[in-house]
Amino acid sequence: MDALQIAAVILLLLFIIKPLGSYIYHVFSNEPNKTDKFFAPIEKCIYAICGMKNRAPMTWKKYTISLLLTNIVFVAAGYVILRLQQFLPLNPNGIKNMEPTLSFNTIASFMTNTNLQHYSGETGLSYFSQMTVIMMMMFASAATGIVVAIAFIRGITTKGNTIGNFFEDFIKGHTRLLMPMSIILTLVLVGLKVPQTLDPSITLTTLEGAKQVIAIGPVAALEAIKHLGTNGGGFFGANSAHPFENPTPLTNVIEILSMWCIPASLTYTYGRFAKKQKQGWIVFGAMSILFVAFLALIYFAESNGNPALTAMGLDPSQGSMEGKEVRFGIAQSALFSTVTTAATTGTVNNMHDTLTPLGQITPLSLMMLNTVFGGDGVGLVNMLMYAIIGVFICGLMVGRTPEFLGRKIEPKEMKLIAVALLAHPLLILGPTALAFLTELGKGAISNPGFHGISQVLYEFTSSAANNGSGFEGLGDNTLFWNISTGLVMLLGRYVSIISLLAVAGSLVRKQPIPETIGTFRTDHLLFVGILVGVVLIVGALTFLPVMALGPIAEYLSIR
Amino acid sequence: MFKIIRLALLMIVVCGIAYPLAMTGLAQMIFHDQANGSLIKEKDGKVVGSELIGQNFKSPQYFHGRVSSIHYDAAASGSNNYGPTNKEMLKRTNESINLLKKENPGVDTKDIPVDLITNSGSGLDPDISVKAAKFQVDRVSKATGVSRAQLNSLIDDTTKGRSLGLFGEPRVNVLELNIKLQKLLKS
What we know:
The complex is a heterodimer.
Chain A: H1 2-28, H2 36-50, H3 60-83, H4 100-111, H5 121-124, H6 127-157, H7 166-191, E1 202-205, E2 211-214, H8 219-228, H9 249-273, H10 277-303, H11 307-310, H12 329-342, H13 357-369, H14 378-398, E3 403-404, E4 407-408, H15 411-437, H16 439-442, H17 450-464, H18 479-507, H19 525-558
Helix pairs in contact in A: 1-9, 1-12, 2-7, 3-4, 3-6, 3-18, 4-18, 6-7, 6-8, 6-14, 6-18, 7-8, 8-9, 9-10, 9-12, 10-12, 10-13, 10-19, 12-13, 13-17, 13-19, 14-19, 15-17, 15-18, 17-18, 17-19
Chain B: H1 2-30, H2 32-35, E1 39-41, E2 47-50, H3 87-103, E3 127-128, H4 130-135, H5 137-144, H6 148-158, E4 159-160, E5 171-173, H7 174-186
Antiparallel strand pairs in B: 1-2, 3-5, 4-5
């Protein structure tokens, strides 16, 4: 039954990819199409309000600067709201202003599509902040990621000087993609019992006569964009494990598909832009192979139960249920954990801190690789970066100038890619080491021993990968953690975006060279193997040692 | 720059205010009960709970839910996040095992349902496994005088299957089960 329900979800995804991928292509190809009739007037209105009548195509530099400036303005606006939420409307539960370092962390977290949460939604944010900061940024950060992917794809598939107009892409990402999908998804979720109200918490007397207060709020609207935008920040502290965020296995499946569909479909969009659908399927295939391997690992680890409890004489046949919900069981929990860290969403329906040692390896690895589907947009770009590294390595082996989609890959591009490639492990391993050197970092560990190493490692991996899930036992709402993870999230997001857009800007200007018999084919099954190999080798060389100190050591201690 | 500030303000208004408010309006109109937390009301309209949120049951005449470090206080949510080798977790598990063995004399450790002695992720899990419900039948029967057969059929009535017959796990909503039990006792 478990294998069947997992296979059913994957099958549903396969049905979505082609229609959604083509739709995204039509949205951003800037050729006239049927959807213009409905959306173009709305966009015209927005352009008029923002004074964007003139939308000339941009060079990569202009595109990147526009992207950064827009993100900076959003950050400033969000920060002010969090610091003043006490005085703003829609605060029925009387929540106080958020303190400066926590506000910094929260804003960095939501603008970078990370959604690491050092606050608890029930007690830390007013309804106004949940809506105008959290929800607004969930749209904006997802749209930012998607337009990066589109700009990058244009860079490697078109010829000229420009990679599009940032504002046009950004606004279309909202109006044609994220907003309509969110509206439909919200209503579906409410129909399946996810609350959507502005009333304050409910107080009632339980069957045993005790008083129970139930926090509630506009949950469904947030849930929709939280998953579609691969954001992951929950309305409640327990995130999608909370029965109001994720009441039934059916909502669980819907949430899985909604966070998975855009990153997966973008591979198809890429194939459309490249005018060779196979290119897209090759990338999708490589992602899927890695995905299934890591899914199998967590599923088997969790369904075998916690060895420490089995040693007490308990029956392991139910699997490891600590930190999981009965309605999801092992299959829906393992699948959710794999998708949320593959698509770097960071929403959780079970507590990752409580995973068995081998089970922890799956979320950690997927965030370290940061390229198996990945967050909206950025995941595809990361995988295409690995594809370029792949042709580069193959080129070196046979002594030919490497080419990708008919463009020569030269030292300039490889240097930029090296920056993006190296920033990620540096941002994970450097701060992790730093945290262990100071009492400020070590003091936060709540699970002593090898698991404590994993807690710190997970926090920085999640920040650098812009995932946002956590080993939540970590006492992370302190000055040290707020500032350090805030910086890691910002660098983890923008260093790679800038360098990869620079690669796109450089490739778009190159004269395409015709395909010959000696051309290394990237639309061949062989290339799937090369992609998977490159990703795994680079990942293993970088992260295996630290993995051995955390989860693997913990596994060996209770095996 | 002013263009971008205008864009940011517009996004706050559209995505941050108009979208959630419109959704709230629509949701309240179309799905009123679901949008307000799926509350369970008695005939006189008194709210006794939400079908989605678990309650703390400690007395022997009720079926008990899972371990909750927050005691089902739904003003917050979450758990202690104990790792698989955490000493506190092992201690808590040991205590739960001993307590269950005391409540159910003659029970072997390997017969104890694991979901009953582990902390749920949300701390508000409304459900237990069918096995965990049946496990408590002897105790509840002794405390209430309701026959075991009646309790078992009550459990079967309350059991929810997998969604669409495929997704998730079969489960028993503890609050619903206890409400049915209470009605049985009153009648």
